[in-house]
Amino acid sequence: MQNQNLFTIDTEFFNKYLPKITDDQLGKVLRSIVYYKSTKKIPDNLDCLTSVMFNICLDHHNTNYNIKTYVYLMQFSNNEESFIKIGLSRHVKKRFYNLKNNGYAVSIVKKAPFNTFDEARKVELDILNKFKDFKYTPKINFFGSTECLNTSVLKQIKL
């Protein structure tokens, strides 16, 4: 039997977020990759972190899959700071609930559906590149905190 890699791992990503990844989540990612490879269907039961890891594994395999994906903008604020976060999700409300327990008041500002993950990812990366001079680093680190921007660009972002 020929040995074939089902996926590759972005070690920089995993090293950064490994303390936040449970064995259960890693198992879900591995089972999800195997499920996807055999059925070409995206599992619906992935939590936020598992879903992101799943997408990263597929990205490293240059796997293009057709699934409706949203680009969203959420505003974060607390007594010390306010900023926006751009991101991708198949389930924006689920992502919202995963993010709102991190020390910030969070609100969904904009969201736009795309027919494929690749289309959504391109829009997200274009926006992050266009507004790279307005990148914002939150005082509280959370999963996705590297995709934040100063609130001054909010009205300029078209979805």
How is this structure best described in words?
It is a single chain. This protein has helices spanning 11-17, 23-39, 48-60, 92-99, 117-130, and strands spanning 69-77, 82-89, 105-114, 148-149. It has 159 residues and is α+β, with helices and mostly antiparallel strands. The chain folds into two domains: 11-60, no CATH class; 69-156. A hairpin with a 4-residue loop joins strand 1 (69-77) and strand 2. Helix 2 (23-39) packs across helix 3 (48-60). Mean pLDDT is 75; it is low at 1-8.
SS class = alpha+beta
Order of strands, main sheet, comes to 3-1-2-4
Determine the N-to-C terminus distance.
48 Å
Number of strands: 4
Tally of domains: 2
Protein topology:
Layout: H1 11-17, H2 23-39, H3 48-60, E1 69-77, E2 82-89, H4 92-99, E3 105-114, H5 117-130, E4 148-149
Antiparallel strand pairs: 1-2, 1-3, 2-4
Helix pairs in contact: 2-3
Identify the notable features of this structure and list them briefly.
159 residues; alpha+beta; 4-stranded antiparallel beta sheet
Offer a concise description of the structure.
The protein is of the alpha+beta class.
